[in-house]
Specification:
The structure is a homodimer. The first copy, chain A, has about 250 residues and is an alpha/beta fold. Chain A contains nine helices and eleven strands. Helices cover about 40% and strands about 25% of the residues of chain A. Chain A has a six-stranded mixed sheet with strand order 2-1-3-8-7-6, sandwiched between helices. Chain A is elongated and about 70 Å long.
């Protein structure tokens, strides 16, 4: 599950509200940056609806391919929160109320208010380790290589902090960014391609953004090899300095 | 490819910059809302890196399952723009410079500036229809049930406008939202579940959001059946009115 010795991950976003466009997913980019900082490379992300078979199929596909799978969403007290049961099904294990999770809920919920719906948040697949939730107490969990977190961003972020210590860490991908400003991509593309070919250990991307001020291009270089990154970035800087913007806009 | 007679779609976001967290994807939520307006249901989204085999595998999996697949990213002039070639590979068709696409590029690029890199943007898989790009001219395309668009949001949006006329339209999913405000999910979860069970044609979700003002919950009902939606929404409104916030916060 580790590709070329690297530590890899996939994010699985679970929730109708993302697929309807009601809610803008912010968790994937947060997780991407967070994992990058600890040397875990996000290689894929998926969004699936609140449908058990879809969740099971995606978890199964992703957990076999990547070192870790991080899921967000679907672990609250309402009927549409089906993630824990789906994860248990994907692993073929039992799921039941976990006394450790009940104890966590009781830190925030009075015993007389711990009704059946709230107890659902203590349903944890057999064999899972709990992930603490300092915000609202209802825990996430980790089973095998799958980390199950809430969808609400501040809770997800707290759970990621709590889970990060359990993750293997790889060599961090280093990044260099070269501003091409308004220099059109079409001016530097051919030479940039040659630089990319000459530096196999460096991944180079060119990213335009459009605003009322016009097009602005950035070239982003990524590598685990600091020396190779610096050589490639130097070559790109020289290339951009050599060219100057002309009238053709793309 | 149509599930239960509904028109369905998947989004495939192509780009290392999304998986590294450099760029926040905004296209998926835009496409989700846009498709919803024309009765096309977004059922899945995936993000894959700029790697040919990953793009081919995802396109192949998704185009067999859904009525449409909409891709974003990877159709510019630089070496990391490999989407058109990957789509041709997925369909097993040739890819070459398309004279219609060259003509579009020449609306914006002077003939003497139409270098090899810029000509890459005219590479179109055999049998594809072009999708006009009123912003920067380099076209997207549609082949089979796959719609290939740029990653830059304003260009993607223009291409979606240009492509929308070619899509089959289904019955629009109607939405009703009931504010539960600070009423805890755990208070209404059991009764909400019963309402959901009693209205099979209505999908009901409960969505908390956290801010400095505390937790705020919204219940979202979705259905193609206006009468059923109104009945279920009425039941939810009565439920929420009947309950009042107490001290247990989740």
């Amino acid at each position: 599950m580790e590709q070329n010795g690297n530590i890899t991950a996939a994010v699985l976003v679970i929730g109708d509200e993302i697929l309807s466009g009601r809610t803008q997913d912010q968790n994937t980019s947060y997780i991407a940056r967070y994992l990058g900082e600890i040397g875990v490379e996000l290689r894929e992300a998926r969004v699936v609806p609140d449908v058990t078979e879809e969740i099971v199929a995606a978890v199964d596909a992703l957990r076999r391919r990547y070192t870790y799978v991080l899921t967000t969403g679907g672990i609250g007290p309402t009927h549409d929160d089906i993630t824990a049961d789906a994860i248990a099904a994907a692993f073929g294990v039992e799921i039941d109320e976990d006394p450790r999770a009940v104890a966590m809920l009781l830190e925030r919920i009075k015993p007389e208010d711990l009704n059946a719906a709230r107890r659902r948040m203590a349903r944890i697949p057999k064999g899972a380790e709990l992930i603490e939730n300092v915000i609202s107490k209802a825990p996430g969990f980790m089973i095998g290589n799958v980390i199950v977190m809430a969808g609400v961003p501040i809770i997800m972020q707290a759970m990621l902090d709590a889970a990060a210590g359990r993750l293997a860490r790889g060599a961090k991908v280093l990044v260099a960014t070269v501003d091409a400003d308004s220099l059109p991509e079409g001016r530097y593309a051919a030479d940039l391609s040659k630089i990319a070919e000459a530096h196999e250990k460096v991944t180079i991307g060119s990213y335009p953004s459009f605003s009322s001020a016009g097009v602005r291009n950035q070239i982003v270089l990524r590598s685990r090899d600091a020396d190779e990154l610096e050589r490639a970035a130097g070559a790109v800087r020289s290339l951009i300095a050599r060219l100057s913007a002309n009238g053709t806009p793309i």
